[in-house]
């Protein structure tokens, strides 16, 4: 004798969960908060620091999920492992593959640790994914790089729970607001799973990552200060694999080049480059070249999609 209500309650109660490689993004945060509301601390989120996140990202996400949202989150710092596997790799698809596979390795090891530590609660059966409706369409219609990343978790022998699979992005944002997720997070620009590795056009080293993190942080700080963040769909800095000649004092310099990207887009299938007020670009350029040793030139990308893509790799 059972009712459907009890069945739902019992099924949900079995779920002890984990969220994926873009943990800290809007979708996985909303999905995680939903799970937390449903089953509290029987839900576990794992965030893998892959060494190619934005400046201070791991710490900020940890603080927000743990402290502000009360979600049970473990952050695993696997940056050494990721960066050693990326050593010398330039091909973008190779970078994506390495990051995807390493993510699965780290994630599975961490899930096994969690399971062992809480053996009294039984096995982990379910995997939470923040898949949206457009992802559902995408992953059955073509196998592009992002679809491959997004479906990676299916390699594990866990049943999938996808609470957002009927929703579009703006609906997820509305749901996030309803769940009291801070506006700063709900409005956040998307960030790709392979992170800064696909925004460093040459080989990925810790020094290059740190340089790009700082340029990217200055860029976004100035965008926010100018009140433009909400008008832009996605903005980021790219580190080009060339050097340019410059001058500092009476010295000739020969240093790296940063490209800035900002686009407006409904669905990221097409995108327009964003028209900045001149003074904002001027400030960003002078801050990046003044504050970051090793960079003597900043360029702005004025290419729409198509023919360009949003990312450079
Ligand atoms: P493109 O460069 O294809 O980007 O015009 C469209 C959107 O997809 C994001 N993107 C990715 N997201 N893994 C991800 O999770 C990836 O490998 C990947 N490549 C591109 C990109 O940031 C933009 O929002």
TrEMBL record:
Residue window of the full protein shown: 207 to 519 of 519
Organism: Lactarius akahatsu
Subcellular location: Cytoplasm, Cytosol
GO cellular component terms, A-Z: cytosol
Positions that bind ATP: 23-29
Entry EC no(s): 6.3.5.2
Protein name: GMP synthase [glutamine-hydrolyzing]
Top-rank EC class of the record's enzyme: ligase
GMPS ATP-PPase domain sequence ranges: 1-188
Pathway(s) served: Purine metabolism; GMP biosynthesis; GMP from XMP (L-Gln route): step 1/1
